[in-house]
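Blinded run. Sample ID left blank on purpose so nobody reads anything into the name before looking at the predicted structure. Input follows.
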Amino acid sequence: MSLQFIFGSSGAGKSHYLQQYIVEKSMENPTGNYFVIVPEQFTMQTQKDLVMAHERKGIMNIDVLSFGRLAHRIFEEVGGNQRTILDDTGKSLILRKIAGDNEGELKVLRGNLKKHGYIGEVKSVLSEFAQYNIDVETLDKMAENAEEGTYFQWKLKDIAKVYEGFSKYLSDKYITNEELLDVLCNVIGKSELLKDSVIAFDGFTGFTPVQDKVMKELLHVCKKVIVTVTIDEKENPYTFTHPYQLFALSKRMVTGLVSLAKEERTEIDDAVCLPQNPPYRFRENPSMTFLEKHLFRYTTESFSKEQDSISLHCAKMPKDEVAFVMQEIRRLVRVKGYRYRDIAVIAGNISTYADYMEKTAKMYDVPIFMDYKRSVLLNSFVEYIRSLLAMAEKNLTYESVFRFLRTGLTGFSREDIDILENYVIAMGIKGYKKWDEKWIRTYKGLSEEELGKVNEIRSAFVEKIQDVMGVLKKRRKTVKEITLALHSFFVQEKLQEKLVEYEERFQEKNEPALAKEYAQIYRIVIEIFDKFIELLGEEYLPLKEYCDLLDAGFEEAKVGVIPPAIDEVIVGDME
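Blinded prediction complete.
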């Protein structure tokens, strides 16, 4: 049992060295097990790199996993987790319900819970608490020690109240992803897969306390644990003095793992220190080498040679920045012989630049792929559901009815909707009772024939919604009844077929990202409905509260799209 570090600066080739080492050892010992643990978003790329590094182009005894997937892999082998895993959407639903139930007792959170994205922030806080072993008792102690009557103390008490309700609701039936690693710690010792295996960790800047517990168990069971660490060759990785020193995260990780190894009486092998002058990635780029060696250091040196690798450009507005970037991309492709796939655009905040990027890229005829998960809130099918519920909640007001009709999924033509809207505005029609009776009033310029047409459209609309409105307008109804009524309405209106038509239409218009969004949206909505029935099915809820819960679910749901073409500029954010 041993622990080994691979030290090197950014671009020194730590991942490459590790992959070559794992491939060689896996070929020397084909019956052994080798695990490479990376952050969730790097698993596919790391698998690809290992396959390419292997002379047989296969990795039969090498597993590439994240911490979460490692837990699932071991549970498949030895069991240990009987509870349903709650994803982010499920967490948001339960938190919204718990917060609503305790609204009267909350002082600070009460006024904020219905703000867009607030439940997501509360969910993130509770996730961090789980990762750092902070429980309700710890929060209560902190609240007691805080200054009496302060905003901070009230906020701590509010969060503790929500956290306590959330934990009770989950009890023995559900488990969150953050708690999985706690359960994993209890079964690592039983795993034959991990026994005498080699396990490597790459791409981490540090580990949370719950991940440290897993590392401790792995040091006890695995033959060898390898960890890559980004650090400058001049730094001492084994001394951590304060959190603001250069490479503090790396030093904290190394000193923490060394401490764990000593507790487990695990041997610490000599570290591998990769040559860093210059780092391999920047071997042909002196200006980037200089930047990597001097960034955030106190130094009097400056780079005085001619270079064109790094340049700064100022613009007044994001729109101007994007225009410059697109012009530069066109120049690189036309003059310098680049391919679009050789280029990436990184923004600090993708939401600020996304609209400008899409419009300007189209203007300059540059193919781009926006690498971020889109919120489903702006999808027409989601708007269809929200507006349908709004009609029931507000008793068919003018705004709610035409918000529903103009989603494009109701089957009425634009002309019919316009005719109906003119009459409703002129006559001030509102309320289900008014919509359900024949309209006989007329106004100047409206002929009998046109009134007949209006009544024909009205009758078709009322006939369409009467069954679902019958359920939604009931005084007492469970979450399950509302959800099943909505699903029956989707089936009645053949919504799935309509969404397939949208997908095909976007494919014909060469809009692959929108086509993929509409290919996924029906499944996403049905999964949210399944969670509603599973988590809250027998609860009696007012329609207003149901709408708030559904919005919380939709806010959390995101549509992920794989790059639809090979030769595109990738646009992403720092994260």
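Unblinding after everyone has recorded impressions. The chain has a mean pLDDT of 89.
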